[in-house]
Design brief:
The protein is of the alpha+beta class and about 290 residues long. It has 2 domains: about 180 residues, no CATH class; about 80 residues, HAMP domain in histidine kinase (Helicase, Ruva Protein, domain 3), CATH 1.10.8. The protein has 8 helices and 4 strands, in the order αααβαββααβαα. Strand 2 and strand 3 form a beta hairpin.
Length: about 290
C-alpha cells in the first residue's frame, strides 16, 4: 500500500467522522432554530389575537351599547372579532389557525374538540398555568400549538353567561338558552389556541442543512485535491527521486548527482544523509581502486 493511498485513507476516514458529527449537530441546531421560529410565530399570532380582543372590548363594544339593546351583534364580542380576523388571515394561509375553544360556548363553532378539551382540563386543574404548548398532526402536516386559558376575570362577562334570565334578550333570540351559561367568576371556561405549521420552518431547516452539508463536501474535495498536490510535490516526488537514485547507487552507478538540499524539514535531512552516504561510498570505491 503506497504512502499516497495510506494518506488518503486516513484523510477520508477523518473527514467522514467529521462530516457525520457535523451533520448530526447541525441537524439538531437547525431543527431547534426552526422550532423556535414556530414558537415566535405562535407568540406573535397570540399577541395579535389579544390585541384584537382588547381593541374590540375597549373601543368597539362601548360604541354599540344602544344598538345591542335592539339587535345582538356578534361582531361586538372580543372573541368573535379575534376569530373573524384570523379567519380572514386563513384565506391566504389556511395552515394557520386560531380558536377560542370553550367547553360550553354560546356560539357552537367555539365548541372544544377532544384534544382542545384536554388542554382546557389542564388549565382547570392547574390555575397557575399561564400557557401550554405542544405539537399535533393537523390536516396540513405537523403543527405546533400555543394555548392560554380563558378565565372569567371580568364580571361583565357574567351578564351574558351566568343565567339565561340575566342575558340580553337579543342574544337569546340569536343563540337560544341551551348553551353558554353557568359560568362563574374566576372559572377557566376555555382556551385560546393558536396552531402554527412546522412544515415551512422545517423545510427551511432542511434546505439550510443540505446547503451546509454540500458546502462542507465541496470544501473537503478542494482540500483533498490541494493536500494531494502538496503531498506529491513536497513528499512523494522527492522520495521517488531518492529511491531511484538509491537504486542506481546500489548497482554501482556513482554518477548520480547529489540532491539539492532546500529547507530544514525531514525531506531535506533525508537528502543530506543520502548525499553523505553517496560521497562516503564514492570515497570507499576510490580507495579500493
Amino acid at each position: 500500500m503506497g504512502l499516497r493511498l495510506k494518506f488518503n485513507l486516513v484523510l477520508v476516514l477523518v473527514f467522514g467522522v467529521g462530516l457525520g458529527v457535523s451533520g448530526v449537530l447541525s441537524r439538531r441546531i437547525l431543527e431547534a432554530n426552526a422550532r423556535d421560529e414556530v414558537v415566535r410565530n405562535a407568540d406573535l399570532m397570540m399577541g395579535a389575537a389579544l390585541a384584537v380582543r382588547s381593541y374590540t372590548n375597549s373601543q368597539i363594544t362601548p360604541q354599540l351599547e344602544l344598538q345591542l339593546m335592539r339587535t345582538f351583534l356578534p361582531q361586538s364580542i372580543p372573541a368573535y372579532a379575534a376569530t373573524e380576523t384570523f379567519n380572514a388571515l386563513r384565506e391566504q394561509h389556511p395552515e394557520y389557525s386560531y380558536k377560542e375553544a370553550v367547553l360550553n360556548p354560546t356560539n357552537p363553532r367555539n365548541k372544544a374538540l377532544e384534544w382542545e378539551a384536554d388542554i382546557i382540563s389542564q388549565f382547570r386543574n392547574d390555575p397557575q398555568l399561564k400557557d401550554f404548548r405542544g405539537a399535533r398532526e393537523a390536516s396540513t402536516g405537523r403543527a405546533l400549538y400555543l394555548a392560554r386559558p380563558i378565565r372569567i376575570t371580568n364580571p361583565g362577562c357574567l351578564r351574558c353567561h351566568s343565567t339565561p334570565e340575566a342575558a340580553p334578550p337579543t342574544m337569546l333570540k340569536l343563540y337560544g338558552t341551551a348553551n353558554g351559561f353557568g359560568w362563574k367568576q374566576g372559572e377557566t371556561v376555555g382556551a385560546q389556541i393558536v396552531s402554527v405549521p412546522m412544515t415551512v420552518a422545517l423545510d427551511k431547516a432542511n434546505q439550510a442543512f443540505r446547503t451546509f452539508m454540500t458546502s462542507l463536501l465541496v470544501v473537503f474535495l478542494i482540500a483533498f485535491v490541494v493536500l494531494n498536490v502538496a503531498l506529491s510535490v513536497l513528499i512523494i516526488r522527492p522520495i521517488i527521486r531518492m529511491a531511484g537514485a538509491a537504486d542506481e547507487v546500489s548497482i554501482g552507478n556513482l554518477a548520480v548527482p547529489e540532491f539539492a538540499v532546500k529547507g530544514r524539514d525531514q525531506i531535506a535531512i533525508l537528502a543530506t544523509s543520502f548525499n553523505r552516504l553517496r560521497r562516503s561510498l564514492q570515497k570507499a570505491m576510490q580507495l579500493l581502486e
